[in-house]
Amino acid sequence: MSDLNEQQQALVALFQEHVQAELRGDLETTMATMTDNPHLTNVPSMVGGAGQKGVRDFYANHLVGKFFPPDVEMIPVSSTVGTNQIVDELVIRFTHTTVIEWMLPDVQPTGKRVEVAFVVVVGIDGGKISHEHIYWDQASVLVQIGLLDPKGLPVSGAEAARRILDPTLPSRPMG
Predict the structure, then answer these.
(1) What is the set of domains in the chain, with CATH numbers?
(2) What is the 3-state secondary structure (H, E, C) of 15-46?
(3) H or E segment at 158?
């Protein structure tokens, strides 16, 4: 973080405060880091919220304090910080022992281990978070929890996330 300017460091600190509040189950602090008209979209599952009420309702009922199972591990891969946006790439590992409504709506826990790469695009406006667009490979998650058979499909499982962490792992064979 030392090669970031003061403005960029403030953006990173704001987002870290936001994520830590989510993980602690602190809805008020989470919302205090956001603008008056934020939006949140978990792209693969199409869940989230728009506006203060929509985002608050989503966080209160489906995310804050319910983020992940207890063994969650978040491994940072890269972070790009601009003047009004942060793009974080990370790998998240967990055992699917609890319902994760924002990621797998209506899917009961399978007890399976999951490793998946994420990209989080965070917009900043006036010193507050204006939006989060969160992307991950849902097919990879579904393969790992046993809801999608990868045979004959151009999809993978945990090996995709593992390759993000270790680019020397082999590519998928072609042809």
Answers:
(1) 6-165 (3.10.450.50)
(2) HHHHHHHHHHCCHHHHHHCEEEEEEEEECCCC
(3) helix 158-165
- Considering only CA atoms, which of 131, 164, 145 is closest in space to residue 35? 131
* Closest of 155, 81, 69, 153 to residue 114, by C-alpha: 69
Rounded to whole angstroms, the Cα distance separating 152 from 59 reads 37
Predicted structure pTM score: 0.91
Blockwise average pLDDT, block size 10, the chain, 175 residues: 83 94 92 97 96 96 82 94 95 95 94 97 97 97 97 93 95 80
Q: Is 117 helix (H, G, I), strand (E, B) or coil?
A: strand
What ranges in 25-157 are assigned the alpha helix state H? 27-32, 51-58, 138-144
Q: Return the amino acid letter for 46.
A: M
Distance from C-alpha of 157 to C-alpha of 138, rounded to nearest angstrom? 10
Closest CA to 37 of 14, 59, 56, 62: 56
